[in-house]
Specification:
The complex is a heterodimer of chains A (195) and B (287).
Chain A lengths: L25 H10 L16 H11 L3 H26 L3 H20 L6 H14 L9 H15 L6 H13 L18
Helix pairs in contact in A: 3-4, 3-6, 4-5, 5-6, 5-7, 6-7
Chain B lengths: L4 E4 L1 H9 L2 H11 L4 E5 H25 L2 H11 L2 H5 L17 H25 L3 E3 L5 H4 L3 E2 L5 E2 L14 H7 L1 H15 L9 H15 L9 H4 L1 H8 L5 E4 L2 H10 L3 E4 L9 E3 L10
Parallel strand pairs in B: 1-2, 1-6, 2-3, 6-7
Antiparallel strand pairs in B: 4-5, 7-8
The chains are: A mainly alpha (195), B alpha/beta (287).
């Protein structure tokens, strides 16, 4: 708690708005600014008015962080570049390169997953399916067909703008046709011979 | 479309999506031998009942409990053993998708899978095969999963008796009268004890159903044939296809023999080979 001393003295980290009021926390000060909340010593709040300036403040805090959007675009480009390189490695039948690039791609997809709230639900589903298909996969043994499927999914769908429900189905179809197991994430593990 | 054809029953349709990777490979390898992969509306209805209902259950749990871990514990603690054994969807593998995932990530991933399944699973069901037989006009199989404005999923009718005039099952059974008569004759021998094999309870139920139907075919929908004798309904749906593929041979061994189909049974464990029973084999093994 910080207190106004009444002598005009300021305390570090505290902003005093007007005399006669006791400030409790810096956080409460922010809240007062945002909502124009009139505060009394009795701690009873009066009517809440959202002042125009406060509205802008709220909208600004709800708007997606520009830097997050830029990160998303950057990771999309990196994922696409990796997917293209993966396809090339599979064409050359270079399993070591496939593994290195595949690992990189998986990392970029994980970054995209962390930023998924910037995109719509169908996009998130497609990304989830792709990550699921590449999980627990022997990257050295990805076939050319599978790598082409990965590249198409990243290029045509993830990096291709917004995804409708129909396009999400097409993305799933693309992955299935490339022998990528989209349901791996909710499939049974390897069977127990005892069963 | 022309060429060799195979009919998939619900166990194979479900295994193609949700069983282990090696088993999936086995199934796809077998299916690659055929030109045309078919299934039917009653199979679709079973897919809805077995997979999509489970998806809805899990999604509702996720929304209610808000945590993947809590859902896992809840399912372990509260789902009775018989239901637990029949689970189609396994959430355990979610933890292998990304090393950096938190419980919130698992929760969201699970929701992504389940929401997609509910919203698009029936369309994907059609897309995953070359042909879906519509002859039965099974209303439950035709009914889509609907999402209302509050985000709740509705399955519509799930039993024949709930479908009013929308269901064509009664007419379909009339069209299959000759096949039903042959199946009845074949099962009579087995249930009388004259056959070499012991019939399962389900087989006995099928025989009893057919006997009742032959005596009085009216109001057959009230007996919920697609729930009570689903194996019979699927066998009748498949009757024009020379080969039937299943993971459960118990009832199929009698039904396929009666309607002159080849039967392929896929064992649960991927190491084992498919069991192929051809029509011209004098004897089929017991399942």
């Amino acid at each position: 708690m910080s207190e106004w001393t009444g002598t005009g003295q300021t305390l570090p980290g505290v902003v005093f708005s007007s005399p006669g009021f006791r400030k409790n926390t810096a956080g409460q000060e922010d809240r007062l600014l945002s909502y124009g909340l009139t505060y009394e010593k009795s701690s009873v709040a009066r009517e809440v008015k959202i002042i125009p300036a406060a509205k802008q403040l709220l909208q600004k805090s709800e708007a997606p962080d520009i830097s997050a959007k830029r990160s998303l675009q950057a990771y999309l480009q990196k994922a696409l570049a990796s997917a293209v390189a993966l396809e090339e490695a599979a064409t050359r039948q270079d399993p070591v390169e496939s593994s290195i690039i595949g690992t990189q791609l998986i990392d970029y997809l994980a970054e995209l997953w962390a930023l998924r709230n910037l995109k719509q639900r169908e996009w998130q589903m497609v990304l989830n399916f792709l990550q699921s298909a590449l999980s627990k996969t022997c990257l050295e043994r990805l076939s050319l067909k599978q790598c082409q499927g990965v590249r198409k999914t990243v290029d045509d769908f993830l990096a291709g703008g917004s995804i409708t429900r129909e396009r999400a189905k097409n993305a799933v179809k693309t992955m299935k046709e490339a022998d990528l197991d989209v349901w791996k994430g909710i499939s049974m593990p390897e069977e127990d011979p005892g069963n | 479309m022309s060429g060799t054809a195979v009919f998939l029953d619900p166990s194979i349709v479900i295994a193609r999506c949700f069983h282990g990777p090696e088993l999936k490979k086995r199934i796809e390898k077998r299916l690659a031998e055929f030109n045309i992969i078919c299934t039917g509306l009653v199979v679709k209805c079973e897919f809805k009942r077995r997979v999509l209902k489970e998806a809805l259950y899990l999604l509702q749990l996720l929304r209610r409990l808000g945590s993947f871990k809590k859902v896992q514990r809840h399912v372990t603690d509260y789902l009775p053993q018989p239901q637990a054994r029949k689970k189609q969807i396994c959430l355990d593998m979610l933890e292998t998708i990304s090393e950096s995932d938190t419980d919130a990530d698992y929760t969201d991933r699970a929701a992504c899978f389940l929401e997609y399944l509910l919203e698009n699973g029936l369309d994907d069901f059609d897309d995953d095969v070359d042909h879906v037989f519509q002859e039965s006009q099974c209303a439950c199989g035709l009914e889509p999963v609907r999402l209302d404005e509050k985000g709740r999923y509705g399955f519509g009718a799930t039993k024949c008796a709930e479908t009013e005039d929308r269901c064509g099952i009664a007419a379909f059974l009339s069209d299959c009268a000759e096949n039903i008569r042959v199946i009845h004759g074949s099962l009579q021998e087995i249930t009388d004890g004259r056959g070499k094999k012991k019939p399962s309870d389900e087989t006995v139920k099928i025989y009893s159903f057919i006997s009742d139907f032959m005596k009085d075919p009216s109001d057959i929908k009230k007996k919920d044939p697609c729930t009570v004798v689903v194996d019979l309904m699927i066998a009748l749906e498949s009757r024009k296809v020379p080969t039937f593929y299943t993971m459960n041979g118990k009832e199929s061994q009698f039904l396929c023999r009666a309607i002159s189909q080849d039967l392929i049974v896929r064992p649960n464990y991927h190491i084992h080979e498919d069991i192929v029973c051809r029509q011209d084999d004098p004897e089929w093994r017991d399942f």
